[in-house]
alcohol dehydrogenase (NADP(+))
Amino acid sequence: MTTVAAYAAPAAKAPLERTTIERREVGEHDVLIDIRFAGICHSDIHQAREGWGDAIFPMVPGHEIAGVVSEVGPGVTAFRVGDRVGVGCMVDSCRECENCRAGREQYCTGGGMVGTYNALGKDGEPTYGGYSQKIVVDENYVVRIPDGLPLDVAAPLLCAGITTYSPLKRWGAGPGKKVAVLGMGGLGHMGVKIAHALGAEVTVLSQSLRKKDDGLKLGADHYRATSDPKTFEELRGSFDLILSTVSAPLDFDAYLSLLRTEGTLANVGAPEEPVSLNLFSVLGGGKTLAGSMIGGIAETQEMLDFCAEHGIGAEIELIDAAGINEAYERVLNSDVRYRFVIDTATI
Ligand SMILES: [Zn+2]
Ligand SMILES: [Zn+2]
């Protein structure tokens, strides 16, 4: 076991504080990673506050991890000491079910994926995430960060990047397609950059025009306020794909009306309460209301390679670990442009 400095929530809703955790010995197929940067994802806050149900405490959140390999097990073939690597939302899965075999480990049906934190590993021990200085992960759940991508702006790609890349690819964002990105936060700003790089015509749909300049700078072609009823009249039947990154309850009927025939409204955010809609909103026009959750390991590598090729990183605000609790408050107030990233050397 190795003792590692970390920031943890000792109990639900308690402020995070500095502590130490134990990391397992580097096993046959394990990689020891010196974490350099860890992004703060909104789901870290949900889980540290038990907004999504019972959680495991103490909790070390963090599933947007970028670092450098400092040791490898004897059976490791994909990585060497010194490699720049990332770890996202999962650190294991059954590896045998249909989904794992197809590279959709996030939808593992053989017991489910093992979350990077707030989960139990196959050894029965709780997993601890990226708000720490080192992590030990099986090489099959580690991805390579291409040289062209600085580690700090790469970290948020491990969740926010893949969460938006996967549905944009799956539903065909590309040249000749009109894509709307709903919400201009941590996920949304990545959705804009990636959809633009894929060649789509991109519209941001945001509550107000407050972040319009940013949206256009990041690659959006249009930016419309959803608080303005004219937006819904004028954009009716416009989009091939709407990517919703918001977790507030939505008027699904109104957003579905913005789709073209056989268009898709894909959700990557989820409100805590069940939603309602009039099914005629999907029957008319043969529309699809869909969902997507992060992406598989191979697709995460593909996303990182794509982002490096297109010079895409997250827009970040780098903070010291002592600022984590304040950052949480600011995320809850949508007061970040667009992702906090912890410099883990300050833990
Ligand atoms: Zn996340
Ligand atoms: Zn599986």
Observations:
- DSSP finds eleven helices and 17 strands in the chain.
- The chain has a mean pLDDT of 97.
